[in-house]
Amino acid sequence: MNKKEIEQTFLKLIEYTYIYGYEDYVKENILPNNLKKDQFGNYYIKIGESKTLFTSHLDTVGKQKLKVNYEIYEKDGHRFVKTDGNTILGADDKAGVTIMLNMIDNSVPGLYYFLIGEETGGAGSRLLAKYMFNMLSNYDRVISFDRRGYGSIINRQVGKWCCSNEFVSGLSEEFKKNGMEFKADPYGVRTDSAYFMAIIPECTNLSVGYFNEHKVTEEQDLDYLLELCNVCTKINWESLPVVREPENFDSTEPEYVQKVTDLPMYKLFNIFDEVYDIIYEEVKFLCANDNFFKPEKEMIFYDKNDLEETLNFIAIVHSDGSITLKKNDIKIKIKNIDSLKKNKKRLKSILSFSHNLYIDEKSINYN
User: Fold this and answer.
1) Which domain holds residue 278?
2) pTM for the whole structure
3) 126 is a domain residue
């Protein structure tokens, strides 16, 4: 595609907000006819022989499909796209989709996956990772095009290193050869590539030039996107180093068999959601494996700015509704969610204790 065609493709992709469940509309109206659909609802195509998997996602955040009214304007010498303020733009991740469509058009070798449900917790990528291990294990690297801003090579997400320094250096050098500056960014949260970290050695996410994602103030640097589309067809993806050993960010599955005396499963899920909300509200920690919650399972909480992982702790929701927080050898046992709510303002200091604790609605006691 030439620049005009790339721009028109992106603008057509953002005409509506395509929420999870509406991805087929994107395929029917915009995507190439030669894409295949897997059993999970994702679309894919293989070009040539390659050890590289490329991903973007077709869905946007939101609760309904809406018409997007956009405008193009100039800022800092670049053309940007934004909406009239009534909807999000959907550049997250139609920018990534546009890049991949141009790479396909230019016959860049790779396996291209247009994934569903990223905004709902990686619906398409989680199923792909769970059931297609053998296929995915043939690949050395996965490149997601789904990072905000400029020039980021995400080398850490869900609290774990997702690609090696050698890989980052190699990719940075490839971009530099083609006139763009990209460098390591260890402050990623999670996108589809994270779900392949236990299978594929080098997993990353690249900046595509959008800002203020998930908000009505979302905007896309259109000129940056056009430049990136061109450069991504010139990078020697197959030459990138493969050093990292695949590592799972999830915890071990518990040996849990539901008993008739346990709380109903939906209540346990609700309790975990409340625990997560309180932890994020009070200490701003994220849960690495929240999409894999089960009663009695260790849920891993981390501070994305803590690169040494010294602040990580575990939260366990037990089948009776009680809660345990674990940090190193210290255990904080909490009678129920109401006890945690009552003491939530003390959570930061509680997590710094060097003794085991038991907390109920009335008191905090040393064990």
Assistant:
1) 265-366
2) 0.94
3) yes
